[in-house]
Design brief:
This protein is an alpha+beta fold and 213 residues long. It has six helices and 15 strands. Strand 4 and strand 5 form a beta hairpin. InterPro entries: Flavin_Rdtase-like_dom, Split_barrel_FMN-bd.
């Protein structure tokens, strides 16, 4: 089936994108407003764009009456924290997705513990197995109600039990037990069926390829 996005409204293009680009990592963002009040919200339009330098991008929408708290807080140059979501934290992450009134502390509502960050003002979520301290590099306005946040990762916190080798920065990724966003309004993927597939060299591929390939 062919879908021409030029012929579809935004609601349907959103449904097609989120139903087919899966699983998506979840950025559980902690930011602060001008009064220093904390805000926590999950975003699945998120990904790593560069490892050197370390850069991530985050897609943030707006309400019809104005920007969401996170969007308003993430001005150019603002610091924030991306916390990754483990299966154990999924229910509490879902609480922070509630559309609370501005000024409500979502982390307190979800029973989460805050821990100080070292390079940015907003705290991190202590229970999260991975927390990235970030600083906004650029805000790209792609539409009136859609913005892409480009951010530098300044530092990362990883729970000790998931660190295999500090010097070589080896991480036991399965132990993080991270979840990904799937389709619809409430579907998520959990790491319970992993597959290892080493990358091939051209010589290996040619050795295994049928004659005439």
């Amino acid at each position: 089936m062919y879908f021409d996005f030029a012929a579809l409204d935004g609601r349907n293009t959103y449904k097609l994108m989120t139903a087919t680009i899966v699983p998506r990592p979840i950025a559980w963002v902690v930011s602060q407003d001008e009064q220093g009040r904390n805000n926590a919200a999950p975003f699945s339009f998120f990904g790593a764009m560069s490892g050197e330098p370390p850069v991530v991008c985050l897609g943030v929408g707006s309400r019809t009456e104005g920007p969401k708290d996170t969007g308003a807080n993430l001005r150019t140059g603002a610091g924030f924290v991306i916390n990754m979501v483990s299966a154990e934290l999924l229910q509490r992450m879902n609480v922070t997705a509630i559309d609370f009134a501005p000024g409500v502390d979502e982390m307190q509502a979800a029973g989460l513990t805050v821990a100080p960050s070292r390079k940015v003002a907003p705290p991190r979520i202590a229970e999260s197995p991975v927390a990235m301290e970030c600083q906004v590099r650029q805000v790209i306005d792609v539409a009136e109600h859609r913005h892409i946040i480009v951010a530098d990762v300044l530092a990362i916190h990883v729970h000790d039990e998931a660190v295999l080798d500090v010097e070589r920065c080896y991480i036991d990724t399965p132990r993080l037990n991270l979840v990904g966003r799937m389709h619809g309004r409430g579907w998520y993927a959990i790491q319970d069926n992993l597959l290892e597939l080493p990358r091939l060299t051209e010589a290996q591929w040619r050795a295994d390829a049928p004659q005439g390939s």
